[in-house]
Amino acid sequence: MAQTQIEAAIKLLLQEAEELCIGRQITELEKVPNALEFAREYYAKNAPVIIRGAVAHWPAVKKWTPEYLQKTLNDKVVDVAVTPNGYADGLARQDGEEYFVLPLETKMPLSELLKRLDDPMGAVHYIQKQNSNFSEDFPELAGDIVSSDLDFAQQCFNKPPDAVNFWLGDERAVTSMHKDPYENLYCVISGYKDFILLPPHQLSCVPRRSYPTGIYKQKSCGQYYIDPLLDDDDTQQHTEWVSIDPLAPDMGTYPQYAKARPLRVRVHAGDVLYLPNYWFHHVQQSHKCIAVNFWYDMEYDSRYCYYRMLEYLTTSTADMKS
Length: 322
Hints:
The protein is an alpha+beta fold. It is built from nine helices and 18 strands. It has helices spanning 3-19, 35-43, 59-63, 66-72, 110-117, 133-137, 151-157, 302-313, 317-321, and strands at residues 27-29, 49-51, 77-83, 90-94, 97-102, 104-109, 124-127, 163-169, 175-178, 182-190, 192-198, 208-218, 224-228, 238-242, 263-268, 272-275, 280-285, 289-297. A nine-stranded mixed beta sheet has the order 1-2-16-10-18-8-7-3-6. Strands 4, 5, 12, 13 and 14 form a five-stranded mixed beta sheet that branches. Strands 9-17-11-15 form a four-stranded antiparallel beta sheet, with no helix packed on it. The protein is globular and about 60 Å long.
C-alpha cells in the first residue's frame, strides 16, 4: 500500500472517531455501576469512566496516613524506586544520548522513606513496584480495603485481578506517557492523581521510537548516572517508548501530536478511575499520595489485532529495522 494511502486511511480513522465522539470524554458517575452497565457502556466501548466516591467508605481512605502506615507496618523494609528527576521508566539524556531509563531500586525502612519524601532537594523516592506488591508486601493492610466493592469489574472481565499494586510517593514523581496491556481500576486512597489520557485510535499522533535502555546508578559521591544495559552478547538493549512530554510538547519536532486530543482528569481520594487497555496515560500526583490499583489481563481479541495493524502502519521504517 502506498504511503499516501496509509496516510489517507489514518486521517479517515481520526476524522470518523472525532465525528462519532469516540475518546472525546471521560464519563463521571456518582454511584458504582452494576456489571451489565459497566460491560455495556464502558468495557465494550473501551471507554474510561471515573466513579466519584466509589471507595470513599473504605477504612483505608480514613486511616492511611504516613503515621498509620509506619505503625501498622511496624516500620518494615520496603522496595523503593529512586531517580534524580522523578521519572522512573522514562527518558533522560547523558553525554548527548537519549535513553529509556529504569530507576535505581533499593530497600529502606518505611520511616526512612517518609523522611526522604519530605526532602525537596534530594532524589525522588517512590513505592511503585508493579508486581502485585500490595498483595505480596503489604498483607497487613489488606483488611483496610473492600475489594468486593469492585466485583462489578471482576464479573465483567470474568477473571480476578492479575495484580494489585500499592503506590506511595512525593509530588515530584511523574509517570511518563505509556500504555499497558491491562484493564486498570485505579483507586486513590489519599491525595489526588492527575491523569492525561489518549485513546488507542490516536496512536498515529503519539510519537514513539526505540531508545537505548539504561538504569540509574549512584556514584560514591552521591551523583546519579545512567548505566547502559547490555544483552548477554554485549549488545545495547533497546526499548520502544513515547517520545513526547504532554506537559511541554515539542510540536516542532513532533508535529503529529497537534492532532491528538488529550483528556485530563483529577482522581481524588475515594474515587476510582477505570482505564481501559492500551489507553496512553501520563500521571502526576500530590505530595505523599497513596493509591492502590487493580490490573486485569486484557482480552487479546479482534480489537487487539486492529491495534497491532495500526501500530505497524504508524511505525517508521528506521524503527522497524532497529
